[in-house]
Specification:
The chain is of the alpha/beta class. It has seven helices and twelve strands. It folds into two domains: 49 residues, Structural Genomics Hypothetical 15.5 Kd Protein In mrcA-pckA Intergenic Region, Chain A (Roll), CATH 3.10.290.10; 179 residues, Rossmann fold. Strand 6, helix 4 and strand 7 form a beta-alpha-beta unit. It holds the Pfam family FtsJ.
Length: 240
């Protein structure tokens, strides 16, 4: 009998592949009653695959944005939001939970957005879009709030054109120091261990954002990156 990867088998059960990989790594998937934590594990069609997805959020990233907005008591009621690096839609989901009337879910990839969010009339899916080349003509509405979670690129590379072209009133950005430094700073697992280097990166990005916004707050993310990297949530308001 043919075998398939476990994350692919989960896609057949209605999950996006990214979400399936997160669930597997978090120990939420069983094969024949046994927890399997490697997405690449091969399974048979005849195997019993069970998913414990009682969690209401479509990604771990949702908790990072939620923690930031909750701690600062940020209300998104009736606001138009832009989620850059939307992926499965964790940030998008939190924006809707906080009262957003519309969320543009933008990602350079395809077929990642959670099915229920894809079907939500308040969510405008924007697949295959590179935010480095963003234009205000892409959107029907002025953007009130920007949230962003991108990987393998410096967040400043995206923020510069976004701040210039869209002028969001306030924003929340996930800072991932492991993607802001050279590979020589990372250990073999891709983790940036040096707190000094992390702090320097965070201060540099904060200084960059302060050129556009008057008030900037940075907090440690309540949840670490997938490989144990310490990440940070930056919130900014009051455009200059």
């Amino acid at each position: 009998m043919d075998k398939v990867r476990l994350d692919v088998a989960c896609v057949a059960l209605g999950k996006t592949r990214t979400k399936a990989q997160d669930l597997i790594k978090d120990g939420k998937v069983k094969v024949n009653g046994k927890v399997i934590s490697k997405p690449s594990t091969l399974v048979l069609e005849s195997d019993s695959v069970e998913i414990d997805d009682a969690d209401t959020y479509v990604s771990r990233g949702a908790y990072k944005l939620k923690g930031c907005l909750d701690s600062l008591a940020i209300d998104l009621r009736d606001q138009v939001c832009l989620d850059i690096g939307a992926s499965t839609g964790g940030f998008t989901q939190v924006c809707l939970e906080k009262g957003a009337k519309k969320v543009y879910a933008l990602d350079v990839g395809h077929l990642q957005l959670d099915r229920l969010l894809d079907q939500d009339a308040r969510v405008i899916k924007m697949e295959g879009r590179n935010a480095r080349y963003i234009e205000d003509s892409w959107f029907e509405d002025p953007i009130n709030f920007l949230c962003m979670d991108v990987s393998f690129i410096s967040c400043k590379t995206i923020l510069e054109p976004v701040f210039s072209k869209l002028k969001p009133e306030h924003c929340a950005v996930l800072i991932k120091p492991q993607f802001e430094c050279g590979p020589q700073y990372l250990n073999t697992k891709g983790v940036l261990k040096s707190e000094k280097t992390r702090n320097k990166i965070v201060e540099d990005i904060k200084h960059f954002v302060l050129q556009t916004y008057q008030d900037v707050v940075v907090e440690k993310s309540q949840i670490q990156g997938r490989h144990g990297n310490q990440e940070y949530m930056l919130y900014a308001k009051g455009r200059r």
